[in-house]
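User: Run a structure prediction on this.
Assistant: Running it now.
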Amino acid sequence: MAKPLIEQLSKVPLFRGLSPEELLTVASCAKGASLKRGTLLIRHQAPARAAYVVVSGLFVAELPVPEADAIEMAKMGAGSVIGEPCLVKDGPRALQVRCAEDAEVIAIDRTLFSALRAKRHPGAYKIVRNICVTLCDRLRNTNEYIEREYKHEEHSMGSMIGSKGGLLKRAKGYVRTLMGRGDD
């Protein structure tokens, strides 16, 4: 595996705690790809085949709406990880993700990663742990957000997502915050 690929992965929180040897083995499940603006990286409800580390460029996560334009939910740039839950459990994609500008990604093949997990590779389990911690934090924050919304309370992220403009606008801002992108 190319040294630059390993160096790029080592900077991403998803790979936090992996030894150089573990990272080298996990990197064998990954390959780089270049994408042009407008490319659909992930289709809504499609089977998950990979998680993606954004090296450069910009992606937009969208919720398709019947008979209307898709609703933009989040923007993700360099350092973001897209679709990482598929490395824990198989299932259809919740959103579609479109390339908003030319981009470089590192694709982590779900099947190859699952084979590492089946072999009880410690690096694979460290990544699963990192994904689970991230998902638990997102769920906890979402539950707190829903509770505050239900009680009509101010949100701790009020200045970031705004308290005016309706639930959809606030929810979109909240999803952007969860993805680490703020209210772009």
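The first helix runs from residue 3 to 10.
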